[in-house]
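Forgive a beginner's question, but would it be possible to get a protein, spelled out as residues, together with the matching structure tokens, please?
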Amino acid sequence: MFCIPPMEHILKDELALTHAQTSLLFTAPILMIIAASIPAGLLADRIGVKKAAGIGAIIMTLGAILKATSTDPSSILAFTFLYGVGLAWSFTNLPKVVSLWVPPQRAGVATGLYSVGIFAGSGLPLAITMSIIFPMTNSFQGVFLFWNIPPIIATATWWLLVKEPQQSSIHNKSVTKNTISLRRVLRNKNLWLVASFFILSNFFVFNWSAWAPSLLLLKGATPDSAGIFSSLFFWAAIPAAFLVPRLAYRIGLRKPFLWVPGIILSFMSWWAVYANLTISWLIMVIVGIAHNTRFMSIMTLPVEIMPKEEVGVATGFINSIGFIGGVIGPLVGGLVLDYTSSLDTSLLVLVGLSVAAAVVGLKLPETGPKGH
């Protein structure tokens, strides 16, 4: 996904697309997360998390390989949708893995560990696609082909080395016998609140990450440096992935790690409107730490709120609602850029949404030890 933003200007020109249309090549997998997350969660609760996530990894890899053979927007989009189905089946089941493999009091630390993979896997394509991979392959299809290597390795590793947790079979029998009630999950007011918060969070992160390279280009960066500067958003989050969960458990509270980032992100979005290129790297670092602190806290909530046998379907529900923001955010940025040739209005929208996220974060349940 994240090799798209640094190549946005190339894809737009070679495929004769608008900025808004190009954003769909980035958000198509998010649409599939919205559509497939609940079925993916139910599947994991029934057949086990290894099989459910592993099937998703196979579908994801197949879609990525086929996308590398495409030459027109329609086929690229179609195979990106296929990739997105697999992504939904894998990504949705990460909290389920945590709930089955680690004790509840370590859920935050485990979430931080797999978040490192998410941050590195997003930051690396931003950093090296235009500086190394595109010059080496000299086409966007070649870039797509190169980035097939990680999912192929990950899929093979998952099926060869990962074992189904022993608890999973117990839960699966219970799930099969009693049939998890999606209706019961939908009646959980806390989950609706988390999903609403996730909409605002995803609007911000996917708008920011989709258009950060373009923002830096408008400020005078080269395509190479724009990708490298944009990737700081994810690299800065990696130390936070190790430190924040431990700090949260030491303090005994989780809510501050949900609402305080919203305040910080509102100030950073405002600053980004007026900042010059020289200081933009600092904004990327602060935004990366703040947002991804919030992201890790959100991904821990289903494990802490729900019983283990319902974590899969609860996470699927939160993703299906929350990733709506991930589709709307980049589209808004693309439309603003098409009509104004600037991203200032889009950044001002992020200011307001970040304040709204802070307000919703204050209303979320406290799941830390002191909250109990």
Notes: Residues 5-363 form a domain with the Growth Hormone; Chain: A; fold (CATH 1.20.1250.20).
